[in-house]
Amino acid sequence: MNKFWTIFKFTYLKTVLSNSFIVVSLIFIVGIVGFANFDKIKDWFQDEENLSVAIVTSDDSIYDAINENKLYITPNTTMKKTTKDRAFELLESNDISRIYSINRKDDHNLEAEIIYKDSIQQTEKDNLQHLLTQIQFDIKSAMYGLTDEQMNDLKQSSSVVAEKTTHNVDKNYSSDESELISTIALVSIFIMFIIILSYSNQAALEIATEKNSKVMEMVITSVSPIIHLWGKITALIMAGLTQVLIIAITLIISYFSFDGNKLFNDLHFEITENIIWIFILSLLFVLIGLATYIIFAMIIGSMTTNLENMSQAVMPLNILLFIPMYLIVLNTDAPESSIIEVTSFIPFFSPFTMILRLTTPEVSGLEIFISLVFSLILIILLSWIASRSYKSLLLSFDINIIKSVRKTLGK
Question: Which domains does the chain have, with CATH numbers?
């Protein structure tokens, strides 16, 4: 048992102290802290953008209407009415940011031209157009002699209500719960994909490297191949969970340090029993996915005889990893689709697609249990194959994959 912990400790420390582990962890930490301060960052950028606009128009009523509603166009804006020549002088001397030249045509329609030097956002153009359309509506309504009541009646918007129906489901998510659950699911899938992609390829490369070096010949004289294998597998799984733990701790610290409750209220997020349940299940599927792919990578590494062929050897693993990701990208808005439902019971795919299905209340506890059982059966099967292949192929350099499989299965 001491030999197991020695291998575990060496592999674990080597992984968590590597540059890739530290850099990826820092990227996640910076991203989480940035999201926790999203409102402050947004306000900071908005505070930096102070616009000064010159209005060129012959109609004082149009200028007054625009000036009264200037915050609708863009925040932190100051406006002044001036002549066209004076406006161009101010623009050339950088005393103003842009010019709004607005004309009232003979048919009382308004046309505007925005003149600027640097850049302009599409939202500003759209907001100005909407505001001028409203002003134009008021002008023509006054011409036609419409009363205020008639004008308000014309401005009434139609009502559209979206309601999702569920059949044979005892529970349902509120709209706020649904948004937060979708966020948790997609973030969990993304984190799991990054960690698995990193550690599975690392596991396969590490085993293949040791197999092609003389170090392994000395190691197996003092340590059982099975102990050596599971020491590495356990260490890599724990390294992956350590990265997940770092992310979780960063989330908790950011929540309490940067007034996360205010951010959640602004985003209409609320921690409920359903949210906690989804979070726990997501962590469980992340653990299962990590274990599945790392053990499978160990099998690939033990069958690889030439490091130059390593990229080709891990290709099946990467294909299995990318298939559920593509399915999720194509079905993010339709987690109840039949392809997602079917793949949620297929090991290798289920850790990803079942997390996506958790965003809908239609998924039952029995379906989750069946998916977990299938995944655990695959882990047990892969563990048996990994133990056999590591023991029988560790010192074998047979390049014939069929012979390697037959030797692994003892045939």
Answer: 2-37+173-408 (no CATH), 50-149 (3.40.190.10)
Give residue-wise pLDDT tens across range 109-146. Answer: 888 888 887 777 788 888 888 888 888 888 888 887 77
What's the token pair of residue 117? Answer: 């030097």
pLDDT digits (tens, 9 = 90+) for 209-256: 777 666 666 666 677 777 877 888 888 889 888 988 898 888 888 877
Report which DSSP code applies to 106: T
Bridging pattern class, strands 98-104 and 110-116: antiparallel
Please tell me the distance from the alpha carbon of residue 266 to that of residue 372, in angstroms, as a whole number. Answer: 36
pLDDT, position 171: 55
* DSSP letter, residue 70: H
- Which of 39, 113, 36, 122 is CA-nearest to residue 73? 122
pLDDT digits (tens, 9 = 90+) for 142-151: 887 777 777 7
Describe the strand order of the beta sheet including 51-56 as a list of residue ranges.
77-81, 51-56, 98-104, 110-116
pLDDT per residue over 18-34, tens digit each?
888 899 889 988 888 88
244 close to 291: Cβ distance less than 8 angstroms: no
Instruction: For residue 25, give the nearest of 191, 205, 221, 216 by alpha carbon.
Output: 191
Q: Half-sphere exposure of residue 403, counting CA atoms within 13 Å on the CB side?
A: 8
Instruction: Identify the helix (H) or strand (E) that includes residue 116.
Output: strand 110-116
- CB-based contacts of 112: which residues, under 8 Å, 6+ apart? 100, 101, 102, 103, 128, 129, 132
Confidence of residue 193 (pLDDT cuts 50, 70, 90): very high
For residue 297, give the nearest of 367, 213, 240 by alpha carbon.
240
